[in-house]
Amino acid sequence: MWKLFAKKKPTRKLEEGASLSVSYEDIQQKREQKILVWSCAAVGLLLLGLVVILTLIHPPVPQFMLDDLSVDPVSNSSLVVNLSSTNPSYTTDIYYSKMSVGVQIEGIFQSESVFLQSTLQKPHERTPWTAVVTINKTNGSLGMRDGTMKVVAHVNILGKFGILKNSLVVTCPILNDLKAIVSKPCQVID
């Protein structure tokens, strides 16, 4: 009974032989929208994959510690620097391709940089480095006095497969009070 009183929706009747009109512009616009959406999705997935791959092969930043700094007993114009690095990664090796170490005391002297041997460091391995550096002063004196000094290391490391190279500047600040040399953890600038 309710069906009799319900409003009927007007239906569009086509005459025989007539067809619905669909414009070419509508079809072309929908096609362009689909292409744009799929292109953006493909570029997004490509960038995400690239980020994942670079994260996997990027060399981890090693942790450095200044173990000892002392005046060379043979020559009073040289310092013996003992530096160590630890690979924090669980899976990735680090290859140290070029490494130079020098000592700076602000306004007093700066040593020559000494290049250390290239080496491969396994995960969670601690590698000690020893360098004997000499100063640039002609009188040969270190001019040591109370104050702060820095051991600066320039490090080039290679990651997995030798694809990505990373240059680091390692600065180890030291408080020198002539009675004891107090070392803090080294700062690594990527």
From TrEMBL:
Q: InterPro entries, from UniProt? A: NDR1-like
Positions of transmembrane segments: 35-57
> What is one Gene Ontology biological process annotated in the Swiss-Prot or TrEMBL record?
defense response to other organism
**Could you confirm whether the keyword Transmembrane helix appears in this record?**
yes
Say if the entry is tagged with keyword Heme. no
Q: Where in the cell is it found?
A: Membrane
Q: Name one GO cellular component term.
A: plasma membrane
Ordered alphabetically, the record's keywords are: Membrane, Transmembrane, Transmembrane helix
Main location (coarse class): membrane
Listed PANTHER family: OS05G0367900 PROTEIN, TRANSMEMBRANE PROTEIN
Q: What is this protein identified as? A: Late embryogenesis abundant protein LEA-2 subgroup domain-containing protein
Q: What is this organism's lineage?
A: Eukaryota, Viridiplantae, Streptophyta, Embryophyta, Tracheophyta
